[in-house]
Write a structure and sequence with these properties.
The protein has 6 helices and 4 strands. It is α+β, with helices and mostly antiparallel strands. The protein has one domain: 3-Layer(aba) Sandwich (Glutaredoxin). Strands 1-2 form a two-stranded parallel ribbon. Helix 2 links the parallel strand 1 and strand 2. Helix 1 packs parallel to helix 6.
């Protein structure tokens, strides 16, 4: 949970961090409690948000021999282990920074398990996005 470890940096940037998962609200809540996620946790059982943001999905991305060692490594660690929290185990994640005007300022679509956006890039993008005036509140 790399973002959890940088909670203060995101708070300092002025960003609101939201985790969106698949599965039921009950399972998402359990996941966020178990993983001690300090951010808002939402769920999209239909996967529409994942699809709208162009996130990758497929057996091949997870079980590709080039990714198998990383997938096994992640599943040995309780912090990153894929659980039966619901949703689709083949769905890859991503990270996006969206400014107050709704413009995507940063996008990272995970290509395979363990492919996460570098935190320094997320923090820089969040800091930059925080400088965008809120629509209707410009001076």
């Amino acid at each position: 949970m790399q973002l959890r470890d940088h909670e203060q940096g995101f708070a300092d940037s002025g960003a609101d961090v939201v985790a969106i998962g698949l599965g039921s609200a009950q399972r998402a809540g359990a996941f966020c409690r178990d993983k001690r996620v300090p951010f808002t946790c939402l769920t999209d059982p239909s996967g529409r948000a994942h699809k709208a943001y162009g996130l990758h999905k497929g057996v091949g991305r997870t079980l590709d021999p080039r990714n198998a060692a990383r997938f096994a490594e992640l599943n040995r660690d309780p912090e990153t282990r894929q659980s039966r929290a619901g949703g689709n185990v083949w769905q890859q994640g991503g990270a996006f920074v969206i400014d107050t005007a709704g413009v995507v300022r940063y996008a990272h679509r995970s290509a395979n398990p363990g492919d996460h956006a570098p935190v320094d890039e997320l923090l820089a993008a969040a800091t930059e996005a925080a400088r965008v005036p809120v629509p209707g509140e410009e001076d």
